[in-house]
Amino acid sequence: MGLHKILKYVALALGVVGLILLGRVIATGDEAIKSDAAVQGSVVDPFMFVAYVVLAIVLVLVLFYVVKGIFAGDIKKTLISIGAFVLVVAISYGISEGVETPMKDGEVLSASGARWVGAGLRTFYILAFVAIGTMLFSGIKKLIAK
Q: I want to staple 21 with a disulfide (CB 3.0 to 4.6 A). Which of 5, 12, 47, 137 is the partner?
């Protein structure tokens, strides 16, 4: 029995269990869950447990195939890509500013935390710009080649 077939059965089983637990959450209702912590624990917690199991399986599989791909492929290209990503994050962090910010719940986001949030946003914008530019360049190149 191949790994693909096993994963299909695991996904099917987790999907059925998740669907049953979702039905329990919907049947209980929002107000009952919000008002009673015991109901919340008995209805929402199993649903969250299934979500954590799915997340763990996905993370393990992704890490397995990434490591497998690194050793099977060209490690030089992989290291260059990782270095480029680290460079983008470093540039984003360098141009970000951090200011203590009060949050809605009364806590205060530290200057360092605010700087990391800004760095994450700038990293996203840079990578999105590069991805869109690469797609446009590729499309224009294909149009010119025809």
A: 47
Q: Read off the pLDDT of residues 32-91 as tens digits, 9 standing for 90 and up.
A: 777 777 777 777 888 888 889 989 998 998 898 888 877 887 788 888 989 999 999 999
CB atoms within 10 A of CB 43: 19
pLDDT band at 95 (very low <50, low <70, confident <90, very high): very high
Co-location of 113 and 141 in the same domain: yes
Kindly report the three-state secondary structure assignment for every residue of the chain: CCHHHHHHHHHHHHHHHHHHHHHHHHHHCHHHHHHCHHHHHHHHHHHHHHHHHHHHHHHHHHHHHHHHHHHHCCHHHHHHHHHHHHHHHHHHHHHCCCCCEECCCCCEECHHHHHHHHHHHHHHHHHHHHHHHHHHHHHHHHHHHC
Q: How far apart are CA 60 and CA 10, in angstroms?
A: 14
Residues 90 and 141 reside in one and the same domain: yes
Q: Are residues 93 and 69 in the same domain?
A: no
